[in-house]
Amino acid sequence: MLPDPTPETRHFWDGCRQGELRLQRCTECDGGSYFPPRPFCPKCGSRKVETFKASGQGVLWSYVINMRPRPDMGTEPYAIAVVRLAEGPKMMTNITGCPQTPEALKLDMPLKVAFAKQNDDISLPFFEPAGA
Asked: What's the rounded Cα separation, in Å, for the pair 127 and 39?
């Protein structure tokens, strides 16, 4: 199952396809950056928001290891994670590039974004250890 971009999220998915993690921030208040994409500030409600290229850096904030993957996700356990981005927002994603075990997945470990092309329109943002 892949996402179906909407006019409100198209900039995010276009960025992923181009290898950029894009966030939004309000130009009216000091609400900071936010995720998921939406056409208004979640703090003040203003529609004066801008899109910007994020650093792609973050830390592992939380995770669970799915021991019973869906049939279309393969047979191996995988981590469903929440990453706290360097810019502040949290993002649900998957961790790649390391064993999917509690010994390898340490909370607060530095991560970087890695994009996985799914088709001509969608690349998904996953995260891997920053040293990888």
From this structure: 25
DSSP 3-state assignment of 5? coil
Residue among 75, 79, 57, 53 at smallest CA distance from 66:
79
- Separation between Cα atoms, residue 91 and residue 61, nearest integer Å: 9
**pTM, whole model, 2 decimals?**
0.91
- Separation CA 18–CA 12 (nearest Å): 10
Alpha-carbon span 123 to 100, nearest angstrom: 22
Contact yes or no for 17/123 (Cβ under 8 A) = yes
Q: List residues bridging with 111 in a β-sheet.
A: 58, 129
Cβ neighbour number for residue 120 with a 10 Å cutoff: 7
pLDDT digits (tens, 9 = 90+) for 94-131: 999 999 999 999 999 999 999 999 999 999 999 999 98
Give the pLDDT confidence of 21-65 residue by residue, as tens digits: 999 999 999 878 999 999 999 999 999 999 999 999 999 999 999
